[in-house]
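#structure-requests
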Amino acid sequence: MSSLRNSIPSRAHKERSQPSARKKFGLLEKHKDYVQRAKAFHKKEDTLRKLREKAANRNEDEFYFKMVRTKTVDGVHRPESEANKYTQEELMLMKTQDMGYILQKVQSEKKKIERQTASLHSIDNQPANKHVFFAEDREEAKELQSRYSKSEIPFSIDHIPAGIKRKTDRSYKELEARKDRLSQIEKIYMDMAMKKELQKNGRKRKLTEDEIVCPTSQPVYKWRVERKR
């Protein structure tokens, strides 16, 4: 019976649209739209009820520091500015920790570059294979020499497989990228060191060309701190 009932075509029930006289009010609200609107309304009601309960049961002696450090502007809580949150000593300590991390990265990159350069150098300068032959007399030695001297083929770069070539080129590109990264990290470290020196107490003056130990390609203004005794 169920298969027979399913075979009979049933009428498609369409939902009623908005009457033409009420077109100005938009689409006609269906039951699913009402359910969604009712859920949102009750959710807002529950939120307001919980807030009223909290306000009614609040502790009048309650205190926390944000009550002092914030203020209300047009009904919105605005915290105080945190521009001077840390003291000068705390800022210097944080800068020192940052410099230590950058220095550690510089040393790590240098070791990686040294290892990769050594591995590529050993690949490029591999010694040729040598075979030692033993002969009973001079005639046999001449025969072996003539036989293998003709069959020897000089080794060239054309005989390297394509896969090894690609891996070697990729390794050289990675080595160049590491060198660029190392130069950038060293520049960041020098800038941080210079800013740290400028924050110290004492009279500052611009160094001459003879006093600059590590000049760079770009003109960098360095300062020396002279402590007051």
